Amino acid sequence: MALFTGKKGIIMGIANDHSIATGVAKILHSEGATIGYSHLPDEDGRGRMEARVKKATDGLNPAFILPCDVSSDESTHTFFQNVKERFGAIDFFVHAIAFAAMDDLRGSTLAASRAGFLQAMNISAYSFISTARAAAELMPTGGSMITMTYLGGERVVPGYNMMGVCKAALESAVKYIAFDLGPKNIRVNGLSAGPVRTLAAAGIGDFKSMLTINSAIAPLQKNITQEDVGKTAAFLLSDWSQSITAENVHVDAGYHVMAGPSHALEKLATLVQKPH
Ligand SMILES: NC(=O)c1ccc[n+]([C@@H]2O[C@H](COP(=O)([O-])OP(=O)(O)OC[C@H]3O[C@@H](n4cnc5c(N)ncnc54)[C@H](O)[C@@H]3O)[C@@H](O)[C@H]2O)c1
Fold it and tell me: In whole angstroms, what is the distance from residue 217 CA to residue 214 CA?
């Protein structure tokens, strides 16, 4: 029997095949999960966002793909009402959503505008509180939920700027929501992924350098993949992690423990010694 046989849940945050959430969907599907998805509603009503999620989940037998804009209480409420009608109860919930306007993200944290900051916090941090609340309503006998975060919420990562502040709020929300939902046997964890090339990552200044630095410094000397995230997500969402909650699990090849360049320095030394 596969890990998710007979289990149902929702994944929010697929934009295309490169999305971190798509990696999670693939692993959960391969382990027998029944999954419903959200897509960001199109402003022009042409259905391009829905089509992208359809394409990314092609072959994954989606139970449904429904619109949800997490910056709207009404849209969030309607989405979860629809989930309730289709699924009744759910076992797991994946939140993989973040947004900041490019101007605010690319500028220094000090330069962030009030409106840009509030929008980024609303979509990237508050949305986990509102969707976790709605998802918990559908977990009468318990369940597991995760959100996606990044090291920039714990430490200063040049280029991550204002999104680091949002991730710090998100990671704190994970702990407090885990406290709120613990008595209901609902576990809540953060998955802190290393850099992965996605649509959202394209907004981060000099993302290419982040990838180079990560793989050079990380103990495992590599960058991570969608599949790495998917497998850890499956662990956190399954009964195999039944006593883990309020945790921030790093899937970053160990990068977060390093305080110096280590292997990167050795590599640099070899390069310097090499005659041109
Ligand atoms: N890519 C990385 O390197 C990396 C590393 C660590 C954590 N993360 C986090 O993983 C999560 C997923 O990002 P990704 O990198 O897969 O990029 P992505 O662009 O594929 O996914 C971001 C998702 O957020 C959704 N979204 C944005 N605004 C929304 C709104 N108002 N309502 C509903 N959905 C909305 C988008 O539609 C998209 O599906 C984010 O929280 C991101 O911060 C990414």
Answer: 5
